[in-house]
Amino acid sequence: MNNLDLILNAADFAARRHRDQRRKGSDAEPYINHPLDVARMLADIGGIEDPEILAAALLHDTIEDTETTAEELRELFGKRITALVLEVTDDMSLQKAERKRLQIDHAPHLSPEAKQIKLADKTSNITEIINSPPADWSPERRREYIEWGIAVVAGLRGVNEPLEKHFDEIILSARAAVESHVE
Prior knowledge:
Helices cover 67% and strands 0% of the residues.
């Protein structure tokens, strides 16, 4: 499989797996927009050209949020892509607070490739909080999410300066939006 085929196959697989899912934001965008945003950010801002990292970014939520198994990803996309997806996948059998704590704890120990995927993921999620916050999220809940994202990203730093600068810019916008109660 050539590089372009790999990326397109990963996008197609992710789109099919996430087909019935929507983002939590008030716009209720199709969920696939999120992994596409993460991969685009890695390529356009982070300068990532490695097709396996981009494919892993497209697939990063498939195990966590769909019926996809690690074995299935390994068979279709190989060991490296599956390993990257697993590095950024939460254990959904744990309580939400524990999963959030573990993201902070594990962030410094991720591979450089997984750190970049996680960094773009957090940036995308916080951008969503600014542009289309869930209707039932108070400004305080949005503020808590932003601060938690900052704590996760603290353990990811040192792998991609352009992505980190972009994250910092998004944080400034996010804090301003929440503080001014922009809905």
